[in-house]
Amino acid sequence: MLELVACIRRCYGETYAEPGFYDVDWLIAELRSQRLISIGACDQGSVVGHVGAIVRTAGDAVGDTVAGMVQPDYRGRGLVHQMGRPLFAAFQQRGILATRHFATGAHLRTQHPLADSGAIPTGVLLGHIPAGTRSRGLPRRVDDRRGGVVVYFQRYGVLEDLDVHLPAQYAPILTDLYERAGLTRHVALPRDARIATRRDEPTAEFAVRYDARSGIVVVRITGSSGTRIAIDELADVADGHRAEVVYIDVPLTHPGCPAAVDRLRDRGFVFGALLPGSADAEYLRMQRVPTDRVTPGAIECATDEGAQLRAWITNELEAT
């Protein structure tokens, strides 16, 4: 684990946005819990490259890729593809049927292999990369502002069919994304979602993950369909961290999703990304970013679909 931390520092210095990857105890705990899958490339005892994934929700068949990197002087040797084979084998062993890609969507060099392998863009997070992040050996176009990423989704197997409640203003784009991802989703009728406005229902639970290094707070709603989503309460909790970027993940399988998204838009949030998953882990990520700290036009897009999403989200941000 010490060598993995050393590789992180050789690639990013002290600027890598996932603080756990500087913490050996955290890495060991995540590996033992089987939340983290870690594949490294070594040369004479030194870790010179790494790919991995985290399953953030227990039982989810979709993982989030993390810590994909190659030391600058080892790039161009096909290490990512070589590490990808044992990583995919680990996915099969663990029953992971798809992955979501975040940080790997920051540069064309890493986006092109994703697009070539069948991954599709499902969103653009406008301020996902902290200002000052240094990925050694790769260009940084806007040094004094936060950077953005294109979110990619890559499917390896058949995910279960789900019933979803789509916000009216996002229904066309979400329907298109589901179709391109090859996912079968049944859209519930609007009248089925009205139960979400009943005040006698218990309030949905949520989990908060705050990272001071990246300046991002993520609030993920975890309540079941029989609960009420209290958006103002969730947003107030997020604001208490004074993070530059706030993400609120709204479960698309929850009847209250459309009403929750409407309220979030009133509070300055815009579409971030579709995050496909299993029944309890399929989310619409809404994002709120400081408009004076992001430059959407500088976000690199390897595909026309990604560029179209970037333009659409940028227009919504400007309107907000």
Short description:
The protein is an alpha+beta fold. It has helices at 2-12, 24-32, 79-94, 108-116, 171-181, 231-239, 257-266, 304-319, and strands at residues 36-43, 46-54, 62-70, 98-101, 120-129, 147-155, 162-164, 185-187, 206-211, 216-221, 245-251, 270-275, 283-288. The protein has eight helices and 13 strands.
Topology:
Blueprint: H1 2-12, H2 24-32, E1 36-43, E2 46-54, E3 62-70, H3 79-94, E4 98-101, H4 108-116, E5 120-129, E6 147-155, E7 162-164, H5 171-181, E8 185-187, E9 206-211, E10 216-221, H6 231-239, E11 245-251, H7 257-266, E12 270-275, E13 283-288, H8 304-319
Parallel strand pairs: 3-4, 7-8, 10-11
Antiparallel strand pairs: 1-2, 2-3, 4-6, 5-6, 9-10, 11-13, 12-13
* Global structural class: alpha+beta
Shape estimate: globular
Q: What share of the residues lie within helices?
A: 25-40%
Q: How many strands, which pairing sense, and closed or not: the largest β-sheet? A: 6 strands, mixed
Number of helices: 8
Cα distance spanning the termini:
44 Å
Radius of gyration: 19 Å
Overall strand count:
13
Order of strands, widest sheet: 1-2-3-4-6-5
The fraction of residues in strands falls at 25-35%
Mean pLDDT: 89
Order of helices and strands: HHEEEHEHEEEHEEEHEHEEH
As residue ranges, the low-confidence spans are 192-197
What is the name of the CATH architecture of the largest domain?
Answer: 3-Layer(aba) Sandwich
When the domains are counted, the total is 2
CATH topology of the largest domain: Aminopeptidase
- The CATH class of the largest domain is Alpha Beta
